[in-house]
Amino acid sequence: MSEFNKKWNELAYIKDELAVRDWFMGTSGNLSIRLNDNHFLVTASGKDKRKRTSEDFLLVDQEGKPAETTFLKPSAETLLHCEVYRQTEAGCSLHVHTIANNVISELYGDAGEIRFQHQELIKAFDMWGEDDILSIPIIKNFADIPKLAAAFGEHINSDKGAVLIRNHGITVWGRTGFEAKKLLEACEFLFQYKVTLLTIKGGL
Ligand SMILES: CSCCC(=O)C(=O)COP(=O)(O)O
Ligand SMILES: [Zn+2]
């Protein structure tokens, strides 16, 4: 199987799994996987990402422009994926909108970050110390995508990470598709935990 097909299938399986979790409400979300130093596959814009079709992804260059002739449009948020691949050696970047990540982004948006400590699942981010703190930055949801991508890019400092976009969603990236999905699941677990706890206990 060609490298292109392998990467296509890997992203398709990740998309299927996130769809089962219902993380693509209202056509939201976009996913990408690196093919080589200059190209990555990204989801086509505006599609129902719960469906599997032969037109789910297209190949784009480092600037997010289609690398082949196609009628498909790359995700409107492709520039954020470009930032990940430009600044890191990451192999996969995932963006989803969930109720929990939106609620957390609003509750902690003014603080500019949400912190998690004494939570087992921060180990997904390789935080093994008993008192380690995972900080997930929260940025403004600029309507101008180049501006949003620039703000997002300021928080990329490793081959894996996560950034919340206020009242919009989360983007995570990792060295592999497996790692990116693991981080996304860990983040969503932590967000749901926090929202549930706040609901039960009240207060921030
Ligand atoms: C209706 S979702 C609004 C756009 C968005 O935030 C998103 O994640 C999906 O955009 P895309 O162009 O990747 O389909
Ligand atoms: Zn989005």
From TrEMBL:
The record's catalysed reaction(s) read: 5-(methylsulfanyl)-D-ribulose 1-phosphate = 5-methylsulfanyl-2,3-dioxopentyl phosphate + H2O
Q: Where is the signal peptide?
A: none
Which Pfam families is this protein grouped with?
Aldolase_II
Quote one Gene Ontology molecular function term: zinc ion binding
Q: Which GO terms describe its cellular component?
A: cytoplasm
Cofactor(s) annotated in UniProt: Zn(2+)
State how the cofactor is bound.
Binds 1 zinc ion per subunit.
Q: Which GO terms describe its biological process?
A: L-methionine salvage from methylthioadenosine
Which keywords annotate this record? Amino-acid biosynthesis, Lyase, Metal-binding, Methionine biosynthesis, Zinc
Q: Which SUPFAM superfamilies match?
A: AraD/HMP-PK domain-like
> Ranges for the Class II aldolase/adducin N-terminal domain?
9-195
* Superkingdom of the source species: Bacteria
What EC number(s) does the entry state? 4.2.1.109
Q: Which residues bind Zn(2+)?
A: H95, H97
Pathway the protein contributes to? Amino-acid biosynthesis; L-methionine biosynthesis via salvage pathway; L-methionine from S-methyl-5-thio-alpha-D-ribose 1-phosphate: step 2/6
Fill in the subunit field for this protein.
Answer: Homotetramer.
Which family would the database say this protein is a member of?
A: Belongs to the aldolase class II family. MtnB subfamily.
HAMAP family, alphabetized: Salvage_MtnB (MF_01677)
Q: What does this protein do?
A: Catalyzes the dehydration of methylthioribulose-1-phosphate (MTRu-1-P) into 2,3-diketo-5-methylthiopentyl-1-phosphate (DK-MTP-1-P).
Protein name as it appears in the record:
Methylthioribulose-1-phosphate dehydratase
Q: Which organism is it from?
A: Cytobacillus horneckiae
